[in-house]
Amino acid sequence: MGSFGRLATRVVETQMPVMVQVQELQRRYTNAVSLAQGVVYWLPPQQALDRARELVFEPSISRYGADEGIPELREALIKKMRLENKLNKSSVMVTAGANQAFVNLVLTLCDAGDSVVMFAPYYFNAYMSFQMTGITNILVGPGNPKTLYPDADWLERTLLETNPPPKLVTVVNPGNPTGTYIPEPLLKRISDLCRDAGAWLLVDNTYEYFMYDGLKHSCLEGNHIVNIFSFSKAYGMMGWRVGYIAYPTEVEGLADQLLKVQDNIPICASIISQRLALYSLELGPEWVTERVKDLVKNREIVLEALSPLGEDGVRGGEGAIYLWAKLPGQYVDDFEVVKWLARKHGVLVIPGSSCGCPGNLRISFGGLIESECKAAAERLRGGLEELVRDGMVDN
Ligand SMILES: Cc1ncc(COP(=O)(O)O)c(C=O)c1O
């Protein structure tokens, strides 16, 4: 065994992240268009970018900032959370994106060997974050086959029957990979079950502004609830890496423990990125919701492209930027289908197996402007028609 023998087993045993695998397909099939990555097509607000550009030579940009985030941004976020999310008793920590917020929380709230709960289909990065931080018992609950809502009856039984009870339950709302929105009464029931069992509830609100058909996003607050948010999709700031944690102020010691983790990973989120986040936030949520309105057309276009899979083949999409599609029964190995679609039809999507549900596809409709989305959807439709009619033939 060479020097690689020293790699940590916990990392070795995890699969390569699905996005890394899809990026590899993208490099190989350079003409393929992507309905894979969870991104939006817009850039950050021009006014905010102009202001950030002015800052480059300011010394504070090159120095470390406060671990929990620059005071101006934290203050603005506290206001935003009160006004928009009805979070009145929460403190805030700024992170390098919602993914880092998630890892911070797992490291802060869970110990190696704990059990945790998530629901299938799950957000692949959350699953891997648990695996890599020593959680050995990841209990994956079912979703309702029609609505894909987390099964709260299963959760109730699981929290009662697992000894010691799971330390943390997590949901994404609206969801990645399905776009399913968890209605407030159901979220409340999940929260009450967690509170009664002494478990934390971690809600990922990355897509809070991405709601369609008149639905309105809402958050819950409590001394057992942590919420995470992201600037990535809302303000087109994927590469700037800014997210945040809203955590209960009243829980003694939590702020200190979060700071320990933060100081050992990014120390602080990039200062210029935090400034850009602040300037973007100042434009108000309307800046985001105006752009989200445009995605309704993209969703329609992709929905139409999925029609070869039949009416019952497509679920979700009432929020976020995703649709969830069931492949014909023989295609359990969905990654083979994904590779074939890339190779033969020049379109990239995500295999459902990476979200714990083999035999499905996740399709993102956020990353392309309407004309490009149409072109990508045509390829997808062509591929799916052929798949259903002839199978995965290669010429
Ligand atoms: C549910 C969810 N959480 C977190 C993230 C990561 O967001 P960030 O770029 O803020 O780390 C994503 C990105 O796709 C996501 O879909």
Number of helices: 14
The succession of helices and strands, N to C, reads HHEHHHEHEHEHEHEEEHHHEEHEEEH
Spell out which ligands are present: pyridoxal-5'-phosphate
Provide the spatial order of strands within the biggest beta sheet: 2-8-7-6-5-3-4
Number of domains: 2
Q: Which fold does the CATH topology of the largest domain refer to? A: Aspartate Aminotransferase, domain 2
Helical/strand content category: alpha/beta
Please mark out the parts with pLDDT under 50 across 5 or more consecutive residues, or reply none: none
- What's the architecture of the largest domain, going by CATH? 3-Layer(aba) Sandwich
Specify Rg, calculated over alpha carbons.
21 Å
Reading off the top of the CATH hierarchy, the class of the largest domain is best stated as: Alpha Beta
Binned strand content: 5-15%
Global mean pLDDT:
95
Tally of strands: 13
Full CATH superfamily name of the largest domain: Type I PLP-dependent aspartate aminotransferase-like (Major domain)
Main beta-sheet strand count, sense and barrel state: 7 strands, mixed
Description of the molecule:
- There is one protein chain.
- Helix content is 42%, strand content 14%.
- Strand 12 and strand 13 form a beta hairpin.
- The chain has helices at residues 9-12, 18-28, 46-54, 59-62, 71-85, 98-109, 124-132, 152-161, 184-197, 254-264, 271-281, 285-305, 334-345, 370-390, and strands at residues 33-34, 90-95, 115-119, 137-141, 168-172, 200-204, 225-230, 243-248, 314-315, 322-326, 347-348, 350-351, 360-364.
- The radius of gyration is 21 Å and the shape is globular.
- It folds into two domains: 9-43 and 286-390, Aspartate Aminotransferase, domain 1, CATH 3.90.1150.10; 46-283, Type I PLP-dependent aspartate aminotransferase-like (Major domain) (Aspartate Aminotransferase, domain 2), CATH 3.40.640.
- The chain has 395 residues and is α/β, with parallel strands linked by helices.
- Bound molecules: pyridoxal-5'-phosphate.
- InterPro entries: Aminotransferase_I/II_large, AspAT/PAT-like, NHTrfase_class1_PyrdxlP-BS, PyrdxlP-dep_Trfase, PyrdxlP-dep_Trfase_major.
